[in-house]
Structure formats: C-alpha cells, structure tokens
Amino acid sequence: MTPCDAIIVGGGIVGLATARALTMVRPGMEILVLEKEQQVGQHQTGHNSGVLHSGLYYPPGSHKATLCVRGRREMLDYCDSQSIAVNVSGKLVIASRRSELDRLDQLRRNGEANGLQGLVRLGPAGISQFEPSATGLGALFVPETGVVDYGEVAVRLATTPGVEVRRSEEVVAIKPTSGSVEVATTAGHHAASVLINCAGLYSDRVARLAGLEPSIRIVPFRGEYYTLATRAAHQVRSLIYPVPDPRFPFLGVHLTRRIDGVVEVGPNAVVALGREHYRGHRPDWREGLDVLRYAGARRLARRYWRPGLAELVRSRLKPIYARSVRRLVPGIAAADLEQGGAGVRAQAVKPDGSLVDDFVFMEGPRSLHVLNAPSPAATAALAIGRTIAERATLTLGEP
Question: Which domains does the chain have, with CATH numbers?
Fold first, then answer.
C-alpha cells in the first residue's frame, strides 16, 4: 500500500489545479492524483472550445463571479510562466431580437459590477467594426475574453513538483479509517490522510464509493460541435455569442476561433446516453437507463421537454443547426458546417428536477467531494483549486 498525505481522484484541470494548490498551501506534502484514463484532461477538460471566460454572466458578488475574475488572471499568469499560447481577442455578444436588447444592457451592468474593463455597447453598425460578417440589432464587446488550450494546461499542471500522477488507475473502493482513508484502484492500493474527489462526470459515483449519499446526481449532457469549412472560416475573427436565455444554464450555439485557428460552432445540448458518449463512441444503455430511473431526471424532462425536443431536432438536422448560426453570421450555410467533436457536460440535477448551477461540496470522513464544478471551472481552475485545497487542509488540521 502506497501512503501519502493527500489523494485526489480525477486528473482533469480542477483536480490537477487542486494538487498544485496543495503544494503551495502545505509545502512538502506528498500528493497523489489518480486518473482512470491513460492521459490527463481527457473528458470535460479536453472536450471544450478552450474559452477563457471574463465573468460577464455571473451574479455580482457570487462565488462564480469572484472565482472567474480572479481565476482568469491567474490562468493568464500561469500560461505566461509556462509559455502556453493564449489569445485574448475579445468576443461579441449579439442581440438578434428586440426582446434581447434589454438583456444585453443588463449583461453590461453585470459585467461592470464584476470588475470587467473596456465593455463597449454597440449598435447594428458597430458590430461590423469587430466582426464584419456578423449582424444583429445590437451587441456588447467584451475585450477580456480569450481562448487557450486547457488540455495543454492540464498536461503542464501534471508536472507540478511534489505531485505524482498515476494514470490508468480507476478507483474501485474507498474505505475511511480512524487515521486515514484507504483507496483501492484497478492497479493497487493507496492510503492518505485526506481524499479529495474531483472526478467530474463521476463525482457522485466516487462519493458513493466513500459511503456517502449525495443530494444531487450527475446527468450527462452531450454538446455537439461543428467546425467551419476553410472557405467560410474567414467570416469569424474571434468569438461570437448570442444573448443567453436566462431560463437555461447553457450559453447557446456560438462561434469560437480556437487557439489553433479552427472555427468551432456549437455546442447544442442533449441528454447523453452515457457519461462518455462522445462522437464515435457507442451509447451506454445501462447508464441511459440509470438516468431514466432517477426521479430528478424525469422531472427535468417534464419541465424542459419543449426546448429539449428542439435541441434534439437541431442535433439531427444540420440545416436547422445552421439556421441558429445564421442568426449571428448570415453568410454561413449548412454546407459550411463540417462535423466536429462532442463534449459531455456533468450537469448536476436535484431530486426535484432543478438544475444546479453553482458549486456543490460534500464532506465525509477524511474526505472532501466536489460534486459540481460548473462553468467557468476551466477558466477559474487555479482559483477553484486553491479554494478546495484550503478547505481540504482543515480536515488535516494544523501542519
């Protein structure tokens, strides 16, 4: 059995950032990260557009707003220190309906309350100054938004001195004892003074392995992306977003010029048939049935069946998907959309069917479980990691 000071379950960006933060909060600690995949950052970390969020959308004074604004600055500093490419190009949030203009103004006030600098409210003519091919009734330019490769960030975080990352080790059992917590994996046994669950898509399952009963369940939502064909990619300079619908936690189909220069379109949002139901992966019908058995998921479906059906139709019919895109950039046709990747979002759902859009922690014997780390988790990973590390060290007591 391998003893250490702390075990972190999950080698995504939040788990790795937490490991790094522990080395700063408690220098000299022996930290072990257990990752079930062959490489780190293979799920939510590696299946997104790489957007470095500014903090525009989150309620002023909330944890999400504070962590996003602080975390973005820390992420920029970290990328600079590691020579990781970042492009802070700014983004446009475009109102394409009159009903969205008031929400656009609310977003500006919200962003300013969160400390964002340089926000510019634009009329229809002003949009073309930033995105010549885009159109709308009005827009908000957000200069502090950018893009980065979070997969590369995760790889660098995995090399933090004092942190050992064990790949291809899936946790199968957790047993708290009086003075430690013992963890069995597919490759061996480990023991630590504290366990931190940062398992993302599997966070609720890991908590159950530790003998807990979480108040939420993870319902996987699949987001499907297209990329713009080379002939159409020039129509997007940086990032173009719609005004978000306040009824849903998703930002809607948007266009992002990634750090590699590819323009990504999406994602939509449909319930996934499995926590790893990516494009090219077969559905996991057992997991799909498990979702259907959860009362919270059934109540969620009854509440949102209309928009859910619309998302499903858009997922199956490229011309309808393209219609959403043309609200922002009229010159993009269905033929310009080429199949891209897909990501699976770990959406926490309460038993009453409501969506959880904030951080959820649960403590157990010598363990801390991050049951929900919603967007902007990647942007704010370093700040979130420090918050988790500080909270976890309370379990350890004084050094």
Answer: 2-45+151-216+358-396 (3.50.50.60), 91-143 (no CATH), 217-355 (3.30.9)
C-alpha dihedral (197, 364, 368, 7), degrees to nearest 10: -60
Please state, in angstroms and rounded to a whole number, the distance separating the CA atoms of residues 355 and 151: 27
> Does 169 have pLDDT greater than 90?
yes
Tokens for 379, please give them.
Answer: 């942007």
Determine the average pLDDT of the residues in 278-306. Answer: 88
Report the predicted TM-score, pTM, of the whole model to 2 decimal places.
0.93
Q: Where are the beta strands (DSSP E) in the chain?
A: 2-9, 31-34, 51-52, 86-87, 91-95, 120-122, 138-142, 146-148, 163-166, 171-176, 181-185, 189-197, 217-228, 239-242, 254-257, 263-266, 270-271, 337-349, 360-364, 367-372
Q: What CA–CA distance (Å, rounded) separates 206 from 20?
A: 21
Give me the residue label for tokens 């926490």.
348
Do the Cβ atoms of 54 and 142 come closer than 8 Å? yes
pLDDT above 60 for 397: no
